[in-house]
Amino acid sequence: MEKKSTHILNASSNLLGFSLLIITSLKITKMSHSTYLDEFAGIACLFFAFSCFFSFLAIRSRHEKRGQRFETIADYLFLSALFCIVLAVIIVTMKII
């Protein structure tokens, strides 16, 4: 099976920055108290950060089985964080419309 850890690490770190940008912009505009957007973005930040951590561990692991386990954890965390980002985008879209 092809290793996905490097791709997960790259995408997670980029989307972690995007999530932090959402939170920062909400704090600057003082809109964080009126929506659940910052909560979803905060959860996504945590999931992306842990996804980065586990994908890094999968890359650095010397044991194949342990590396696959770390990669699987990183993959599920990444998917959960993407779900949170999608919810945040839906909230932004509903607020704009």
UniProtKB/TrEMBL annotation:
Transmembrane segments: 7-28, 40-61, 73-94
Superkingdom to which the source organism belongs: Bacteria
Keywords linked to the UniProt accession: Membrane, Transmembrane, Transmembrane helix
This protein's name: DUF202 domain-containing protein
Protein species of origin: Chryseobacterium shandongense
